[in-house]
Design brief:
This protein is mainly alpha-helical and 217 residues long. The chain has a domain at 12-50. 69% of the residues lie in helices and 8% in strands. It has 10 helices and 3 strands, in the order ααααβααββαααα. The protein has helices at residues 11-31, 34-46, 52-72, 78-89, 95-102, 106-118, 140-144, 146-160, 166-189, 200-216; strands at 93-94, 122-127, 130-138. It has a 3-stranded antiparallel sheet. α1 packs antiparallel against α2, α3 (52-72) crosses α8 (146-160) and α5 (95-102) crosses α6. The longest helix has 24 residues, at 166-189. The protein is globular and about 60 Å long. The model is unreliable at 1-6 and 13-23 (pLDDT under 50). It comes from Caballeronia pedi. One of its GO terms (molecular function) is DNA-binding transcription factor activity. This is MarR family transcriptional regulator.
């Protein structure tokens, strides 16, 4: 028996499993939409050891795509889903708080809330004691969507981990959470004042200033 192989190791059986896996993978690539097929070829054939950040991004894109296909049946965009999901848990947030929790810039939130208000999903209100902040509240229609849309997200999550054991899923969660924590530490430990996330206005101003500097050079 070759060193390192467990007792009962069957080379022929293992090779058959690998061959079936390869055939299934090829079938998946061939049957996928062009964009998804190219992404799968990238990871399986072209650059299988590409950076982890790209793999996380593509996994996220795939989950978003799967959910968006289902949301479309209910005439809801993924962008609106993002804000609805937050408001279902914390109704009445200010637009600024909504931006922070969604991880998007204020103009994006403003545009989304405006569209959702026209669709009758939310309404904006100002409290008598504070006219400065605008709060976003779900309408009855917006709240009712929760029972129809949340199961769709749960379905996508279940499909995404098909073939994985509970232990593997637990490990994946641990790995991803550790990545988030490590990058959070990196951000909080940074002493460089320029290393921060700029607002849309700040970023536009910075790009304009650099453009003027290049023209003057």
């Amino acid at each position: 028996m070759q060193a390192g192989r467990p007792r009962g190791y069957d080379v022929g059986k293992t090779n058959c499993i690998w061959e079936r896996t390869a055939m299934t993978r090829k079938k998946t690539v061939e049957g996928a939409p062009r964009e998804t097929a190219e992404m799968l070829r990238h990871w399986h054939e072209s650059v299988p050891n590409d950076r982890l950040a790209h793999l996380v991004k593509d996994a996220t894109r795939s989950m978003v795509r799967a959910l968006q296909m289902r949301l479309t049946e209910h005439s809801v965009s993924f962008g609106h889903w993002t804000f609805l999901r937050i408001l279902w848990e914390n109704d009445g947030l200010t637009q600024r708080e909504l931006s922070e929790q969604a991880g998007v810039m204020a103009p994006t939130t403003f545009a989304a809330v405006t569209a959702m208000e026209k669709l009758g999903l939310v309404e904006r209100q100002q409290r008598p004691d504070n006219k400065k902040n605008t709060h976003v509240f779900l309408t009855a229609e917006g709240r009712a969507l929760k029972d129809r849309l949340v199961p769709l997200a749960e379905e996508v999550n279940e499909i995404s981990v098909t073939g994985l054991t509970d232990r593997e899923i637990k490990t994946a969660r641990k790995v991803l959470l550790t990545i988030i924590e490590n990058l959070a530490d990196d951000e909080s430990d940074s002493t460089n004042p320029m290393r921060r996330v700029l607002s849309t206005r700040e970023l536009g101003k910075l790009i304009a200033e650099r453009g003027e500097s290049l023209e003057d050079a």
